[in-house]
Design brief:
With 408 residues, the protein is of the alpha/beta class. It has 14 helices and 11 strands. The protein has 3 domains: 54 residues, no CATH class; 38 residues, no CATH class; 239 residues, Aspartate Aminotransferase, domain 2 (3-Layer(aba) Sandwich). The longest helix has 25 residues.
């Protein structure tokens, strides 16, 4: 499979360079303005120009409906040689298998819609300010208290952006003299936050606890580069469910290593909070790990809760420090009040405090549907990554020619 996949990409690149060679004769490029370097070199733009644009319709599909469980995809004029991406005016109703709206709270007309509209009338669309200034309402405090209670943590801080939770939160937690040990498949927001922090970064093989222990032990023995001084702190960064692989972290084993060597542990639960576990508490519930053993619990409200933003939950001292030191708190705009109400209402449904069993039924349906889908496509002969119980089910196509054939 690997050989044929590399051969396919090699063939595409070969013909791509042939097209470039031919184009340079037919339509010579305009020279770069004197004294200026080209914004993008040909080699850097080659993939986008000769590979991606030929199949970009597989991702860039316009729709004319809300992105719920079903969507109306606007069809293109595939028969036209001159304008193959031109819309022909027809639509096709399709099942939406590419959404992180795990529990359906992001759908219009959902069970929390009326409460969100009430918050909109009472608090306005946005605060137009950062949290420490004029960006905090009663709803922001309620969200922080409720998420801390849900995760059995002393306190929590919410951020206005999911990506910004990691990219602005991690640099506040660790800096120069510290060591970050990160899973090789961690999300780009974690990578950005780690690089911005100024701490030394080491990577361990994805979900390989033996390699993690070796990296931790070797780092403690070697100490800081050049000086050999002990690290000010060691922070292990992992995800609960990896969004591209659909795999769950072996959290119970990671916690053992963390305790054994005196490290700190931060877990990103963007795709596991409110999505897995009998009561939606995430990977800690699945792996039967006490949340007290995880120092910082991070997650987003953009998936299961159908809202926006993210959170970090930890001991009160850590959260108080984050509020003062994180640029995501001091400079970024606060979550809009209606979005806060969306989080409160959807979390209330998940916890069952709304007086119904709707949350439990949604969680059970998500788990059963994901496992059924995974089992059936595996039986059909597809190569599927990930673990049972995960709502992320990646189907591998490998060959570039199969991608447009399968999608179209």
């Amino acid at each position: 499979m690997a050989v044929t996949t590399f051969f396919s990409y090699g063939l595409l690149m070969f013909f791509g360079y042939l097209r470039d060679f031919y184009s340079n004769f037919v339509r010579p490029k305009k020279p770069t303005q004197k004294g200026y370097a080209p914004v993008v070199r040909d080699f850097e733009d080659f993939y986008t120009r000769r590979l991606y644009r030929r199949i970009e319709d597989c991702w860039n599909r316009p729709i004319n409906s809300n992105p719920g469980a079903f969507i109306n995809v606007m069809n293109r004029d595939r028969e036209s040689q001159k304008h193959p991406f031109k819309l022909n005016g027809d639509t096709t109703r399709c099942m939406n298998l590419g959404s992180y709206n795990y529990l359906g709270f992001g759908d219009p007309g959902g069970p929390v819609q009326e409460q969100v509209f009430e918050a909109l009338d009472k608090f306005s669309v946005a605060t137009c300010s950062a949290r420490p200034h004029l960006g905090t309402t009663r709803l922001h405090h309620e969200v922080e208290k409720l998420i801390a209670r849900f995760l059995k943590k002393e306190d929590a801080m919410i951020f206005g952006m999911g990506f910004g939770t990691n990219s602005t939160g991690i640099p506040a937690l660790i800096g120069k003299g510290g060591l970050i040990i990160s899973d090789s498949m961690n999300h780009a927001s974690i990578v950005t936050g780690a690089r911005t922090s100024g701490a030394k970064i080491k990577v361990f093989k994805h979900n390989d606890v033996e390699d993690l222990e070796w990296v931790v032990r070797d780092s403690i023995v070697q100490g800081q580069p050049r000086t050999g001084l002990p690290w000010t702190k060691i922070l292990i960064l992992v995800e609960g469910i990896y969004s591209m692989e659909g795999e769950m972290a072996p959290l119970d084993q990671i916690v053992e290593i963390k305790k054994k060597y005196g490290c700190y542990l931060m877990i990103d639960e963007a795709h596991s909070i409110g999505a897995v576990g009998a009561s939606g508490k995430g990977i800690t519930e699945v792996k039967n790990v006490d949340t007290a053993d995880v120092d910082i619990m991070m997650g987003t409200f953009t998936k299961s809760f159908g809202a926006v933003g993210g959170y970090m939950a930890a001991d009160k001292g850590i959260v108080d420090f984050l509020r003062r030191a994180s640029s995501g708190s001091v400079y970024s705009s606060a979550i809009s009040p209606p979005a806060c109400q969306q989080i409160l209402a959807s979390l209330g449904v998940i916890m069952g405090t709304d007086g119904t069993d709707l949350g439990a039924r949604k969680l059970a349906a998500l788990r059963e549907n994901a496992d059924y889908f995974r089992r059936r496509v595996t039986e059909m002969g597809f190569h599927v990554l990930g673990h049972y119980g995960s709502p992320v089910v990646p189907i591998m196509l490998y060959h570039p020619a199969k991608i447009p054939a399968f999608s179209r």
